[in-house]
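Researcher: I'm preparing a figure for a lab meeting and need a structural model of a single chain. I don't have an experimental structure, so a prediction will have to do for now. The sequence is pasted below. Please return the structure as tokens so I can convert it later.
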Amino acid sequence: MPQHVNGCPTVEGFRALLRKHGLKATAQRMAVHEAMMVLVHASPDQVSAQIAAAGTQKVTVASVYNILSQLADFGIYRRRLSGSGKMVFDVRSGNHLHLYDRETGEFRDVVDEDLTDLVESRLRRRRFKGYSIDYVDIQFVCHPTKRKTK
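Model: Understood. Here is the structure written out token by token.
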């Protein structure tokens, strides 16, 4: 059984990651992950609303924020900061690129392994005095195009 689908941990993969970090697969953590599997990039408010809509658990927004933060601290999820300064979490923790729609505040994944590899290989050859690169996080800020109608 695969542990990830499109870079997102499956339910079983998520349970394995929790075990690896000494965390229990509580009903609240599982509800948060199930919501994140649907949303992919989301704020705690959005995750809380998704959980409420599913009707499977009752989890406060504060608890959702704490769970998301803990998962990001362990590297299971990643934090993203929107252009408006709002914290958004990404269920896909592997290296990938993003489009950030400045009008809607939404993130979209860009799958371009060649570009990611090119940037990473270029950075590996560079030295930044006093710093080591942990990972590459590239975000393209964009807006929807307006097509003219005839």
